[in-house]
């Protein structure tokens, strides 16, 4: 699942999202892509890399940990949802982006729930955290939609946000692809799954 989602996210970024921001003709897109890449590195200081779909923490850590992790993870999800309301030059790109976010968030949600339960948090509290995480991408989309309906020309804003999300996706997807197997080694099954994921993004 991790390899498939990582490959889909990477191929979606390369085949659809990067051409989209450069087609808009904004020369600053590269700088925002780099910014997004480094924003994700900073977010992982708080989230401990749970965005990769697995956990880099030890069980039973101090009770303050989940709050810092949730802040980083929710900011990450909020940013990913912001460009969902953008009008893309290709009609299928929006649906492909939505599918990429969903595929990316499934293993993250599983890892999040496992981490919260292993940390000794009550199941009811863990469910609340899970719902909070699930709501952040829609909230990001709603926030962008509200700005878009303000009557202002926000094409530059949307393009910059998309470029930042591209940087985040590049970091996440490449990290997933290199970390989702034991000892970071590739095998034939993983290669096959990666090809299927990338192929689906190509066809979408």
* Largest sheet entry: none
What class, by secondary structure content?
mainly alpha
H/I helix tally = 7
Work out the radius of gyration.
17 Å
Percentage beta strand: under 5%
What is the residue-mean pLDDT, rounded to a whole number? 79
- The succession of helices and strands, N to C, reads HHHHHHH
Unreliable spans: 58-65
Q: Choose one word for the global shape.
A: globular
What is the number of beta strands? 0
How much helix is in the residues?
over 70%
N-to-C CA distance = 18 Å
List the helices and strands and how they pair.
Layout: H1 2-23, H2 29-47, H3 65-81, H4 93-118, H5 123-148, H6 155-179, H7 188-203
Helix pairs in contact: 1-4, 1-6, 1-7, 2-3, 2-6, 3-5, 4-5
What does this structure look like?
The protein is an all-alpha fold. The protein has seven helices and no strands. It has helices spanning 2-23, 29-47, 65-81, 93-118, 123-148, 155-179, 188-203. α2 packs across α6, α3 (65-81) packs parallel to α5 and α4 (93-118) runs antiparallel to α5. The protein is globular and about 50 Å long. The two termini are 18 Å apart. The relative contact order is 0.24. Residues 58-65 have low confidence and may be disordered.
Observed structural traits:
204 residues, globular, mainly alpha
Offer a quick outline of the entry:
The chain is an all-alpha fold and 204 residues long. The protein has helices at residues 2-23, 29-47, 65-81, 93-118, 123-148, 155-179, 188-203. Helix 2 (29-47) packs across helix 6 (155-179) and helix 4 runs antiparallel to helix 5.
């Amino acid at each position: 699942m991790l390899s498939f989602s990582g490959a889909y996210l990477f191929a979606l970024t390369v085949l659809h999202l990067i051409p989209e921001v450069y087609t808009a003709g904004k020369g600053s897109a590269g700088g925002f892509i780099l910014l997004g890449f480094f924003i994700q590195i900073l977010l992982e200081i708080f989230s401990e890399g749970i965005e990769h779909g697995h956990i880099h923490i030890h069980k039973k850590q101090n009770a303050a940990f989940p709050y810092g992790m949730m802040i980083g993870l929710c900011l990450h999800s909020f940013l990913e949802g912001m460009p969902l309301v953008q009008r893309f030059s290709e009609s299928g790109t929006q649906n492909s982006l939505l599918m990429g976010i969903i595929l990316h968030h499934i293993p993250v949600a599983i890892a999040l729930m496992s981490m919260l339960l292993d940390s000794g948090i009550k199941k009811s509290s863990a469910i609340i955290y899970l719902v909070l995480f699930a709501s952040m991408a829609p909230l990001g989309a709603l926030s962008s939609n509200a700005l878009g309906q303000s009557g202002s020309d926000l094409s530059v804003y949307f393009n910059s946000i998309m470029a930042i999300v591209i940087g985040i996706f590049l970091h996440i997807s490449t990290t997933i692809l290199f970390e989702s197997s034991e000892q970071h080694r590739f095998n034939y099954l993983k290669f096959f799954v990666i090809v299927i994921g990338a192929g689906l993004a190509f066809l979408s």
